[in-house]
Amino acid sequence: MLLSCLLIISLSQAQQKAVTETGEEVILFDDGTWEYKNGEHIEETEIPTNSKKFEKDENSTFLLKSTKFNVGFWLNPKIWSFKKSTDNPDSEYELQLKGGDLYGIIISEKVHIPLETMKSIALENGKSVAPDLKIVKEEYRTVNGFKVLLLQMNGTMQGIKVSYYSYYFSNTNGTVQFVTYTSQNLIDSYSSEIEKLLNGFVELN
Prior knowledge:
Blueprint: E1 10-11, E2 17-19, E3 25-28, E4 34-36, E5 41-42, E6 49-54, E7 62-65, E8 71-75, E9 80-84, E10 91-97, E11 103-109, H1 118-127, E12 134-143, E13 146-157, E14 160-171, E15 174-183, H2 191-198, E16 201-203
Parallel strand pairs: 6-12
Antiparallel strand pairs: 1-2, 2-3, 3-4, 4-5, 7-8, 8-16, 9-10, 10-11, 11-15, 12-13, 13-14, 14-15
């Protein structure tokens, strides 16, 4: 099984600070930029917005609820298996496509950070494990009426070419990373199931 902790963000209790997986402290800014605590500033490029409205698939009939804040994840229980995550306290659930090599992980934090900042931190953390990691697709989407950030990142980890296709969301109650991953040679064949799973994301009242 591929490592599922590549994109885990380790956040400090303060809203304007975060820690990468390599232990380096970064400072977050409301305009979507950030810098290392030692002063190196990282500029953000503009992220396009997809005008399409994305909605839950009709076959996604099971609602998996976060225990940390008000979000949920509709999925098709006939094709997806899931379990509570035990390896990381910030990771709530691990998922796997039944009979397939497609995986998912749901990472939740009670800390609210700007959605624009997620891109930089996800990429920086990922590079600690896959140094050649690159963003190959990025856009904002409206999913079931709520704004999310989509990132697809490709890289090489322990000789395996992997692709991560993920949604990121933040509100005043917390932050969530809804991550799917597989090998790069399989990502296209799994694209339909990935989209159906991710588009089950909802904010709950």
